[in-house]
Design goal:
- The complex is a heterodimer of chains A (479) and B (794).
- Chain A has 479 residues and is an alpha/beta fold.
- Helices cover 34% and strands 15% of the residues of chain A.
- Chain A contains 14 helices and 19 strands.
- In chain A, the strands form 6 sheets. In chain A, strands 1, 5, 6, 7, 8, 9, 13, 14 and 17 form a 9-stranded mixed sheet that branches.
- In chain A, a hairpin with a 2-residue loop joins strand 18 and strand 19.
- In chain A, helix 8 packs antiparallel against helix 9 and helix 11 runs parallel beside helix 12.
- Chain B is an all-alpha fold and 794 residues long.
- Among the domains of chain B are: 117 residues, no CATH class; 176 residues, no CATH class; 36 residues, no CATH class; 90 residues, no CATH class.
- Helices cover 45% and strands 2% of the residues of chain B.
- In chain B, strands 1-2 form a two-stranded antiparallel ribbon.
- The chains are: A alpha/beta (479), B mainly alpha (794).
- Chains A and B meet through helix 1, helix 2, helix 8 and helix 9 of A and helix 1, helix 4, helix 5, helix 24 and helix 27 of B.
Chain lengths: 479, 794
């Protein structure tokens, strides 16, 4: 016989392991007389660490989100036929996004070379990533569902093209909590100069509790706005204030039981106090050696900004943060990989900013013994077309793009999947975005068919497997 | 109290999932073999041969796809969410005691989850044939009699009858009325977006007349702050911003000069309770309601009508950039379509740019025919750049006179300056002349720039591949038969095409299925925290289903029958039992309502709501006592430091920084930081619904921002002015100012202890006795501002 279990009881029990949670979730589900017969999980409304469904290979993810649509045939996916037939018509009419495309093939202006012991072919404009080729798991057969930025960004982050669902970072913090109770579970590092395309939409918690929303950390000045009082208080006075606030809020909560927002807000004040200490360490570069500074290119203007964010990402996962999302610079564009024209110059500019720090992160994680338990995901939202836009640009392509995975049990030195002779469509071992999500969850010890959240009476899942057919791509994983 | 036996239900459910008796192992259920027999035995008596109930025939897959009055029974896109399954799992169907067995339900579910149903999606694209009409939102709303209820004692009006009938059907009822002071604060924050001052609270609590609450609502509706509060809701839907381009660069701002006049127009309109149909008409076609082109003088009413069309001038417009071609001009028109369809029609139409709507029966042709209404003004072949698309706030004749006068002055100045020598009296004369020049302000308006151009459908949404020529027309599925053609209304003034005026007439016709529903649904959302349809910008098939469709329709028809008055609607809603309920959940988690409807869809209690961004800031200012209540005028600038932590400038007057948030410069992407932190929307186009997050940044902003710290110290000054140095009286006063209520005994004790201890701590840390006392009191006020109670409406 089941005892009736409240959500609050559930919170208290969330440290007790998955078994009781699953049972409670099923119980709740049945109790709500919902239209669904599948059980929904409730994995708690706090950030305490909790186990997954199976033993995890990795404990954290750093997403280097290269928004704009990095050009696969100029970076990761050499197409000799495309180069050979430069200027000739593409045999079929390709799907374009912008006006002003000619259906004429545009060969890559860059040379490719075999890198590492694995002999992975990579472009000359990403020499640093080339130097860690043996650690990279390169997927050349990604495809997505929309060829416009905001929708494809939604897809990459939430598994659906439309806005309003939780980002994968929110799902993961909801599922696993955080190893560090003094920092948010999901941190976003963007260019302090502004937002990339879609801005805050790219780290939304959707209908998951707001506790799992991505929190923006600045990489200059205050890590977080208003982290400290402008007129510092004596520590005991500050503590006494917060104690009073906690007391008053607790009384208020008793009058309003089971209001998740109030719980989150009480938690946030506690977190705010602890964060003041934890977050200020993040920008203290005095602990880093000169060699590390050089590795990330912190003293070089083009790499300094993004390099600092990569370094902060390493520090954050080191401190136990579950998911870190790093954005490239927003200058010259808030979607820096969006090379509709000036392909050669545009790619050179952004690669000069992003290549070295991205590789440095992998090297650094390895040096610190973190590489095995941290997944690095280097991806855009879609790829680019093999045909010519204007005179020297490439338009958006949802049918094929490449991405990099590293660490966290992904197989280094591996190339997975292939595109057609021009790089227009993924044709071999195609991998969808939900497949990617399923595989990431799998490495974190989560079963994507079981990780769910009850929204409006419906158990929602990140991968929506019945509709998307998402599956774990085990070929990408170390055996 | 009756309680379903949950553990047994769950056990049998699990059993079914594991064994699925009656099915062929490893195979999904087959319709004829497994599903049809269940339906035949349980459903065909009503939904079969002859005249099926609610127009729903369950005998074939085709007839289920066609559906009945409440829509298709099968949804091939999301089969397991089909009405068929929902009705039986929720026990709505079959009616009576005999329900489907869990194993039968499981067979239905498995059949729906199989490929078989997904493949049944109709092959042909959507049209406007009859099967499309069943979607409730495309039918004209009908005012049905409010249902009978058992507990008539809780009924204060028709709203309560509709809600209570549904509650009673589930064995539930309303929660108790909340207390007077909670109701007071709720009404203030809902209607004017400011908390009541202690003296206002006292007056209300002392008012023992039976209609004291109704009088309160009337007072608040008459307050000019009402328009500021409710105007802001509409400005979200309209996508109001003060800059005209995309706001991607923090440091660079392109102001849309004078657009603030539209913001003030909106506030005035709400305060005047302008009938909603008139409000829509002015915004879409104010320029077509007055012959301003030939007027000798631009009268204030004419100015008002032109200002109203600013509604259509909030769109991001890149066409001043020379490298952009005609496609960017079309982008502006497309976004006008998106903004108007989501704010007025409550349907999404963006997808119809390229193809027929995937979910709603709206064709690509419908889209471009409707767009033709805007093309005489947003004419891509006769384009006005955004910086040139304004009207002077004087008539063309007045403008000609001013231009002539200024030209003459310029000539005189030119003559004078021909002199080689520049003696002081000559310079003085030049300065005098220059000062005599006249000027005019800018109205960001929309008007027909010339005769209507040819409108065409753009194949696959590509403006370089125009298709067939089209005549302007309204969306077929939303129109009564034979009324889709756009005709120039007789009252169209001047040479204008009248197309936008015709559009306004179509939208505000009592026959229109959406306009009034969208309006009342928005109002409902802002009062209860969730719309009757939860997706405010989408009442189409992909939006959420209405929780109380009959109530929505009743309100929609009622508002149209009563002069489209929003203030009357507020009164109806706010005097209902539903609105006056307590928001508190029962302490007992086993409580029946809590288990049956934990999300409160049926409104068995009021929802606890967080204040919106602007109201958070405005409330802090109000309790600090220094809110600058000046209304209207050019927006107050905000700073744009690189870390993004912007603040309000103390310009043009020192108190400008304390103006209501509505009057701060509204940026598309970078609103004032404290507003952004509390979910002020980013406006790529518009915002049909805000999110309500609870992030650590909000907590930090309240603890450590200069703004909140300053306001806390202002509250402390007010407290001391009223209560002197007596600790108990200080605590009383602080609670009254910040939370509009006296502290409980426990709170009084806690706060006094806090003042004593904090005082000692500060002294121990070397602060003077005076300063220690002051700082302790400021801390107390600060923590009350930080409290959840302050941030939420009960």
């Amino acid at each position: 016989m089941f005892r009736s279990i409240s959500r609050r009881d559930l919170l208290r029990q969330s440290g007790l392991g998955f078994g009781s949670l699953a049972l409670a979730g099923m119980f709740q589900q049945a109790g709500m007389l919902s239209a669904q017969s599948e059980p929904a999980e409730r994995r708690g409304d706090n950030l305490r660490p909790r186990p997954g469904h199976h033993p995890a290979k990795a404990k954290a993810v750093i997403q280097l989100f290269q928004n704009g649509g990095p050009s696969q045939m100029d970076l990761f996916d050499p197409k000799t036929e495309l180069t050979r037939r430069n200027g000739q018509p593409h045999p079929e009419q390709v799907e374009t996004f912008q006006l002003g495309n000619r259906n004429v093939l545009l060969g890559s202006p860059f040379r490719f070379a075999r890198r590492g012991r694995c002999g992975m072919e990579l472009s000359e404009i990403i020499p640093h990533l080339g130097s860690v080729a043996d650690d990279l798991c390169l997927v050349r057969s990604m495809h997505t569902e929309n060829n416009n930025h905001p929708f494809a960004i939604n897809m990459m982050q939430t598994g659906k093209t439309f806005a309003g669902r939780p980002a994968i970072g929110s799902w993961i913090s909801y599922a696993l909590g955080s190893e560090n109770q003094n920092l948010p579970g999901y941190v976003v590092l963007r260019d302090p100069a502004g937002y990339n395309t879609s801005g805050r939409m790219a780290w939304s918690n959707g209908w998951l509790p707001a506790l799992y929303q991505g929190t923006e950390f600045g990489s200059s000045g205050n890590v977080v706005p208003h982290l400290r009082s402008p007129q510092p208080l004596p520590a005991d006075a500050q503590n006494r204030r917060l104690q009073l606030l906690a007391d008053l809020n607790e009384d208020h909560r008793r009058l309003h039981p089971r209001e998740l927002d109030l719980d989150a807000r009480i938690y946030n004040f506690e977190l705010a106090a602890r964060m003041q200490l934890a977050a200020s360490d993040l920008l203290d570069l005095s602990r880093e050696t000169a060699a590390t500074r050089r590795l990330y290119g912190l003293d070089n203007p083009p790499t300094a900004g993004y390099g600092l964010r990569c370094l902060m990402a390493r520090r954050l996962v080191e401190a136990g943060v579950r998911f870190v999302q790093v954005f490239p610079p927003i200058s010259p564009s808030s979607q820096p990989w969006d090379n509709h024209g000036n392909l050669r110059g545009g790619l050179q500019t952004i690669c000069a900013q992003v290549d070295q720090p991205s590789a440095a992160l992998i090297t650094d994680l390895k040096q610190r013994g973190l590489f095995e338990e941290v997944i690095v995901l280097w991806t855009g939202e879609f790829g680019r077309l093999p045909i010519t836009e204007g005179s020297d640009g490439r338009d958006h392509n949802r049918h094929a793009f490449s991405l990099l995975l590293a660490g966290g049990g992904f197989q280094g030195g591996l190339v997975h999947g292939a595109t057609d002779e021009f790089g227009y469509q993924a044709v071999e071992n195609r991998v969808s975005v939900p497949d990617l999500h399923a595989t990431l969850l799998h490495q974190l010890g989560l079963d994507h068919t079981r990780l769910s959240y009850l929204n409006n009476g419906r158990p929602e899942r990140l991968t929506d497997p019945e509709v998307t057919g998402a599956r774990v791509i085990s070929a990408l994983l170390q055996s | 109290m009756p309680r379903p036996n949950i553990s047994t239900g769950l056990a049998s459910l699990l059993c079914v999932v594991m064994t699925a008796p009656g099915l062929v192992a490893g195979e999904p259920p087959d319709f004829d073999r497994d599903v049809r027999p269940i339906l035949a035995a349980n459903c065909f008596r009503c939904h079969g041969e002859g005249k099926p109930k609610a127009g729903l025939d369950l005998r074939t897959v085709a007839s289920m796809l066609r559906g009945g009055e409440t829509g298709p029974a099968l949804d091939p896109r999301r089969p397991v969410h089909s009405l068929l399954l929902t009705m039986v799992t929720q026990g709505e169907m079959p009616p009576g005691k005999e329900k489907l067995a869990p194993k039968q339900i499981e067979i239905l579910r498995q059949w729906l989850a199989s490929d078989a149903v997904a493949k049944m999606a109709p092959k042909q694209g959507p049209g406007t044939s009859d099967p499309d009409r069943p979607h409730w939102a495309f039918q004209k709303p009908i005012k049905r009699r409010p249902p009978e209820v058992k507990n008539t004692g809780r009924i204060r009006g028709p709203i309560d009858a509709f809600l209570l009938a549904k509650l009673e059907a589930k064995g539930l009822t309303f929660s108790a009325d909340t207390n007077k002071v909670t109701l007071l604060r709720r009404a203030y924050l809902d209607l004017i977006g400011l908390p009541p001052a202690p003296e206002e609270a006292e007056a209300f609590l002392k008012d023992n007349r039976p209609d004291a609450y109704e009088r309160l609502i009337d007072r608040l509706l008459a307050s000019p702050h009402y328009g500021e509060r409710w105007g802001r809701h509409w400005l979200d839907a309209a996508g109001y911003v003060d800059n005209r381009l995309f706001d991607g660069d923090l440091a660079t701002i392109y102001p849309n000069e004078g657009i603030w006049r539209y913001r003030d127009y909106v506030v005035r309109s709400f305060n005047a309770d302008k009938p909603w149909n008139r409000f829509i008409t002015e915004q879409l076609a104010g320029d077509e309601l007055a012959d301003w082109r030939n007027a000798d003088k631009l009268t204030p009413p004419m100015r008002e009508l032109l200002t109203a069309t600013g509604y259509l001038r909030l769109i991001e417009d890149h066409t001043s950039e020379p490298q952009y071609g005609i496609d960017k001009r079309y982008d502006v028109v497309f976004e006008v379509m998106e903004m108007t369809s989501t704010s007025l029609l409550g349907v999404t139409m963006e997808c119809c740019r390229c193809h027929d709507h995937k979910y709603d029966p709206i064709s690509q042709r419908d889209y471009y025919q409707l767009m033709a209404c805007f093309e005489p003004s947003y004419n891509v072949r006769d384009w006005r750049k955004p910086q040139d698309r304004f009207l002077p706030d004087v008539s063309p004749k007045e403008k000609a006179a001013i231009d002539q006068h200024n030209a003459a002055v310029d000539r005189q100045i030119g003559e004078l300056q021909k002199n080689e020598e520049k003696p002081a009296d000559l310079l003085k004369r030049v300065a005098e002349l220059a000062a005599s020049k006249k000027s005019y302000g800018k109205i960001q308006a929309l008007w027909d720039v010339g005769p209507p151009p040819t409108s065409r459908l753009m194949r696959r949404g590509n403006v370089n591949t125009p298709g067939a020529e089209l005549k302007p027309a309204f969306v077929k599925v939303l129109s009564q038969s034979g009324t889709t053609a756009v005709q120039r209304p007789a009252e169209t003034q001047g040479t204008s095409s009248g197309r936008r005026l015709a559009l306004a007439h179509w939208l505000t016709s009592p026959e229109h299925p959406l306009t009034a529903r969208v309006m009342v649904n928005r109002a409902w959302h802002h009062h209860f925290g969730r719309g009757i349809v939860a997706t405010l910008g989408n009442l189409g098939r992909s939006g959420s289903a209405p929780s109380h469709p009959e109530l929505l329709d009743w309100l929609a028809v009622d508002v149209m029958e009563n002069g489209w008055s929003l203030k009357r609607l507020h009164r109806q809603i706010m005097t209902s039992t539903a609105y006056r309920q307590s928001s508190r959940r029962p302490a007992n988690t086993d409580a029946f309502a809590e288990r049956l409807d934990p999300e409160n869809h049926l409104l068995w209690r009021m929802n606890l709501r967080r204040l919106e961004a602007e109201i958070v800031r405005d409330s802090v200012l109000a309790v600090g006592g220094k809110l600058d209540r000046t209304m209207g005028g050019p927006p107050i600038s905000i700073t744009n430091p690189p870390d993004g932590v912007s603040e309000v400038k103390r310009e043009p007057t020192p108190t400008s920084a304390s103006r209501r948030s509505l009057y701060l410069f509204a940026r598309r992407v970078y609103p004032l930081k404290i507003l952004e932190v509390f979910d002020a929307p980013i406006m790529p186009v518009n915002c049909t619904q805000r999110t309500n997050s609870a992030t650590v940044l909000q907590s930090l902003t309240f603890l450590n921002s200069t703004f909140v710290i300053e306001q806390a110290s202002l509250v402390a000054s007010r407290v001391r002015a009223q209560a002197g140095e007596n600790g108990a009286r200080q605590v009383d006063a602080a609670y009254q100012f910040v939370l509009t209520r006296p502290p409980s005994k426990g709170e009084q004790e806690k706060c006094q202890a806090f003042l004593r201890e904090q005082n000692a701590t500060y002294k121990k840390n070397g602060r003077s006795p005076d300063r220690a006392e002051g700082d302790s009191l400021t801390d107390l006020c600060h923590m009350l501002l930080c409290s959840n109670e302050f941030l939420y409406v009960e």
